[in-house]
Amino acid sequence: MSAQAHRPRRSCLYMPGANTRALEKAKDLAADTLIFDLEDAVAPEAKAEARGAILSAVQGGGYGPREIVVRINGLDTEWGADDLKMAAKSGADAILAPKVVSGADIDRLDKALTAAGAPDDFGLWVMIEMPLAILNIQEIAEAAHRTRLTTFVMGTNDLAKEYRARPTPDRLAFQTALGLSMAAARAYGLIAIDGVYNDIKNEHGLIDECEQGRTLGFDGKTLIHPSQLESTNRIFAPSPHEVEQAQAVIEAFADPENAGKGVLKVNGKMTELLHLDEARRTVAMHDAIRAFEAA
Fold it and tell me: Which phi and psi (to 5°) does residue 154 adopt?
């Protein structure tokens, strides 16, 4: 895997673009990724001012190793095109585009970024938050092979609204959407970020939902408040036990005495070559997190 694939994205914290104090505070927060928001968090009359504030913040720097993503308004709105053009040359790492529903949407965003002068390594993240996106999820993911698309972000609040679903702690209403999106992301080599948890004061609920997201395979979680960072960073990082077992697997397959063997017993567990690939990924992520936190 590439170094980019191993970049930590345990915690992806939304920051309202109209709040300059929040943008400044973000420089000291333990978030892997900061999502500077021009869409839901900004009132229509404040969109232009927020766009300028985000540009100033990103160009001013000071965010260290944190990944900077700008969530733009949709290209079908009066603000989307200007948002995209600003973000493309701002020095940010990617945009996050809302409400995509087809592969054609990805192509349109990709072409607009190129036309706006975005660097070759500038990423395209997209919100998966509409019923039609779930029905077209393979088509959307497949566009990664020809575009800048790198990341799915689950928009569970919008999905709840569009589904007319009743949110429950087990997220029963969204399991099909989460599972299909994860399958498409992994099939086409995309990063997958889970949706937000709304009850800021319910730490136990946040932990349960993070654990569920990690179990489903998500790389990290979007957040709406800094108080959610600690638990999220811990849960979406490899645990000390997982790292220890992964290192043992790597060492066992590297032992000359095991050359040519496809199955080994490591710490009492039957271990195949497929587990070696996962062990390498685990150690690489552990190392990436340590490097990130030391930067």
Answer: -75, 130
The position carrying tokens 């990423």 is 123
Token readout for 25 is 């505070």
197, HSE (Cβ side, Cα atoms, 13 Å): 29
Q: Which two tokens stand for residue 249?
A: 């697997």
> What per-residue confidence (pLDDT) applies to 295?
85
| Sequence-ordered list of residues with C-beta below 8 angstroms from that of 210, at least 6 positions apart, any chain | 194, 197, 221, 231, 232, 235, 236
Cα–Cα dist 29/14, whole Å: 12
Which residues of the chain have a pLDDT value below 70? Answer: 1-5
- SS3 category, 149: strand
Contact predicate 190/154, CB 8 Å: no
- In the chain, what are the domain boundaries? 11-235, 240-294
Query: What are 123's strand-pairing partners?
Result: 94
Q: What is the CATH number of domain 11-235?
A: 3.20.20.60
Give every CB contact of residue 153 below 8 A, 6+ residues apart in sequence: 12, 96, 125, 126, 127, 128, 193, 195, 222
Q: Where are the alpha helices (DSSP H) in the chain?
A: 20-25, 47-60, 80-88, 103-115, 131-135, 137-142, 156-163, 175-187, 203-216, 229-235, 240-254, 273-294
pLDDT in tens, 258-271: 888 888 889 998 89
